[in-house]
Structure formats: C-alpha cells, structure tokens
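Q: I'm building a small set of examples for a reading group on sequence design. Run inverse folding on the following structure and report the sequence directly after it, with nothing in between.
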C-alpha cells in the first residue's frame, strides 16, 4: 500500500504492511478489529503486548478474587505483606477494598495459589514464618533444652563432729576415688567404689584436724593440725610418712603442686614444704595481714593463689617470695579459690558474708574480668574439668549450692538441702559428682556435671544407693 492509499484509508500503517493484512467489518454501525494476534501460532511477523481486560478474567480459577485467606490466622500474613511491599513498594502495604481489583492496589491474595480444602496441609511445605512471630523460622533447629541437674543428693553420709568453722578445710577427694574427712581429732577415709570406711589416724585429745589435702596422684595425704603441724600419711598403708613444723598456730589450709606442699595458717604465713629435702620448710611467703584460709596452685604449677581473712587475694609465682599480684576488691574473707582448667591464667575467687561476690581475674595482667553478686557468703568454688562451668557453695543466708555457666554466669541449677553453711566441697575424679559438707554434720553427694564424653546427665548407679549411712 503506497502513501496515497494509507491516507485514503485513514490508518497510519507501518511500511511494508499491506492492506490485506487488516480487514474492517461493520456490525451495527460499530467497528471491531480482528487481528491475527488472536491466533499467535499463525502470525509471528508483528505482535505487541497482550493486556487482558481484568473484568473478563476468570480470577476465581486461580484464587485471585478478594476473599478471606484460608490460611491460619497470622500464619503467612507477615510473609505476603513483606513480599507485596518488595514488589509494589511501601505504598502498597495495605490491600484495597474488596471488589475493586485495581492493578495499582493489588489484592492480598495476589501471589497465592488457590488453597485445596479437600485435605490437610502437606507436612512437607511448612510456613516460612511461624504463627508466634512474623519473622521466626519454623524450619530452623529448635533451641537445645537446658541440661537438667538432679535437685536432690543421691547419697547422704552422717559425719558427726564435722566442725562448723569457715576457716577450715576438712574434706578432699583423691584421684584414686577415696574421700578423706576430718572429724574432730580423727581422719577417716571412705572408698567410693565399695563404701568402705577406714580410720586413718587419731591425733589425740590435745590436737584436732584443721585441714586435709591429697597429692595429685592420690597416694599420700597431708593433714594440718590445730597445733600448727603438717603431717604426711600414706593413704594406702595408713602409715605416717613425715611430720613437719613451722607454724605457730593452726594450719587451716593445704595445697599440693607436683612437688611442693604449701600450708597456710592463722599465723598469717604460707610455708613451702618439699618432701625430697630434709628441712621442714624450704621457703616462707609473707603477705597476708590475717589468717590464711584459701590456697590453690594453678594447674601448670606456675602460680599459687592465696586468700585471707584480710580480704586480700594474692598471687605468687615459683621464683619470688613476694606476691606478684595483690587483688583487693573483695570486702570480706577470701576462702573460695579456683583456677580454670580450660584457660591459662584465669582465676576465680569468692568473698565472705560482707562481700558475697564471685570475681574473675586474669593473672597475666591483674585485671578483673567479671563479677557476680551471689546474694550470700561464698564458701567454696570448684571449676568443672568436663564443661566450662563452676559450682559454688554458700553460707549465710541461704546455704545453697549453685552451678554457673562460664563466661555468661547464667545459673544452671540451685541446690538446697543443708541446714547450715555449706563449708566444704570436693569433686570426684571423673568430674561428675561433688560432695558437700556442712555444720549440720552431713556429707551430701550431688550429680551436677556431665561426663567428658557424653553430655547426657549422669545416672545413679548401684553404688550410690539412696539413704543415709555413717562415715564412722
């Protein structure tokens, strides 16, 4: 069709299109265009976008009509609201009134398949967002439930004449699974595997037991006496190996390294003993202004921490007779001391009634890392070797036992049962069981830590039968 024919027809057709490709027919005075676009398979030369008439669409077939969502209330609404805002902008967060169907205001059912009401929802297509929170993912792994710690002791031993004295240390558990307890003038050994009780020694009417401490190998036990002596006994043969003097008054705390035995006394001094030499004392550490009641060697034998009734926590090294650190933040006596078995140079300490705090220190630089107010007197601290948790025992006013997760210091468990201050604490060789002693003259055994291999709670065995027995 040339230009004169295009002007005659009144249509502005593209060049190359003939008049035969478009035909006009008249029906009742109106024109209707019939184009080859209605049959795409027959024409591929010219086409344009197909914009359907929304009013003639069968929206009900695809579930696009405006109606209430069959999905559970709150189930997918947050997801589709966010999806619409991403696709259409923040101005389209709310749907238009029902029935309008404006493309500029899309229906809330716009991108949703029609729901089949004939059967239950498929378990393999969970909602992307849970019903409780618009952004919680149901497909994510549920949080691990907290470890359960038994609230009652699985064994109780009567311990008559167990003294109610904050400054003494009368209970220790050896690496060979033998528990030593100082009762009055005597020391008794309780074998955990057989429940056999053996009387190790009797100091006589003029003396009494103030502290007991096993060597790391568990063969020998040291005993501090009221008269200031330090005795070393063979725990297997029940024979005294050596008696060492040096203190002027009671020896309330003992601590073994691999080679050195340290003793703390009411005379404010710390004495170092070496069984390989003939002299009783190899060195003397002077720094406390009141009775020494806490004493612990680090696991690598490089540092010795001491606590006293002067509220001081001192740290000593192997080569100096002066403390390398003086930590004075506690406001009461420092008896509870524990070194971390998981991190070198990490030290925990607990204060008495006026302080009530557990404090954590870096002995590398002397900085206080953290502290927590426990609400009552801190008598003992024990750091689990199986997990990074701490157990603390307490006196006034709640007499409780608490298990803490480090470093968050969230409470894992709070155990009660003693009627007086829980002054004594020791841990089993496998690190799962603790024994606590109090002025109520009982020793109580608690399963508080998991085993090193399996995180499951420790189960009771036949050896740990319920009930109360006597340790002597």
């Amino acid at each position: 069709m040339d230009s004169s024919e295009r002007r005659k027809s009144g249509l502005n057709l593209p060049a190359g299109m003939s008049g035969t490709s478009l035909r006009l027919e008249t029906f009742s005075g109106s024109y209707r265009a019939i184009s080859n676009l209605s049959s795409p398979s027959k024409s591929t030369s010219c086409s344009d976008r197909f914009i359907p008439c929304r009013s003639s669409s069968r929206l009900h077939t695809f579930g696009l009509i405006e109606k209430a969502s069959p999905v559970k209330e709150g189930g997918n609404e947050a997801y589709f609201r966010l999806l619409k805002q991403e696709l259409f902008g923040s101005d389209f967060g709310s749907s238009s009134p029902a029935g309008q169907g404006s493309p500029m205001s899309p229906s809330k059912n716009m991108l949703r398949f029609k729901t089949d009401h004939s059967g239950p929802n498929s378990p393999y297509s969970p909602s992307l967002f849970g019903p409780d929170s618009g952004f919680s993912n149901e497909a994510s792994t549920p949080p691990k439930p907290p470890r359960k710690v038994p609230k009652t002791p699985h064994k109780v031993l009567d311990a008559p004449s167990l003294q109610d004295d904050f400054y003494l240390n009368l209970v220790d558990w050896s690496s060979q699974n033998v528990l030593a307890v100082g009762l009055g003038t005597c020391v008794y050994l309780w074998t955990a595997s057989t429940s056999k009780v053996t009387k190790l020694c009797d100091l006589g009417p003029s003396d009494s037991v103030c502290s007991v401490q096993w060597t790391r190998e568990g063969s020998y036990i040291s005993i501090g006496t009221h008269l200031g002596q330090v005795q070393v006994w063979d725990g297997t043969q029940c024979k005294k190996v050596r008696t060492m003097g040096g203190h002027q008054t009671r020896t309330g705390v003992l601590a073994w390294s691999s080679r050195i035995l340290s003793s703390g006394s009411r005379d404010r001094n710390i004495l170092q003993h070496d069984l390989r030499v003939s002299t009783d004392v190899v060195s003397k550490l002077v720094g406390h202004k009141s009775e020494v009641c806490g004493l612990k060697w680090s696991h690598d034998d490089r540092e010795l921490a001491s606590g006293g009734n002067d509220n001081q926590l001192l740290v000593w090294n192997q080569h100096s007779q002066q403390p390398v650190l003086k930590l004075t933040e506690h406001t009461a006596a420092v008896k509870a001391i524990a070194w971390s078995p998981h991190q070198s140079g990490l030290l925990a300490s607990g204060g008495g009634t006026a302080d009530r705090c557990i404090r954590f220190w870096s002995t590398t630089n002397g900085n206080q890392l953290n502290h927590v107010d426990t609400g009552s007197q801190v008598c003992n601290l024990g750091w689990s070797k199986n997990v990074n948790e701490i157990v603390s025992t307490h006196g006034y006013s709640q007499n409780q036992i608490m298990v803490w997760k480090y470093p968050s210091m969230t409470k894992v468990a709070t155990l009660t049962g003693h009627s007086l201050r829980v002054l004594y604490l020791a841990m089993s060789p496998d690190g799962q069981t603790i024994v606590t002693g109090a002025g109520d003259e009982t020793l109580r055994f608690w399963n508080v830590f998991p085993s090193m291999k399996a995180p499951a709670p420790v189960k009771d065995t036949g050896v740990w039968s319920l009930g109360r027995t006597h340790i002597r």
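Confidence is low (pLDDT under 50) at residues 24-43, 95-139, 458-466.
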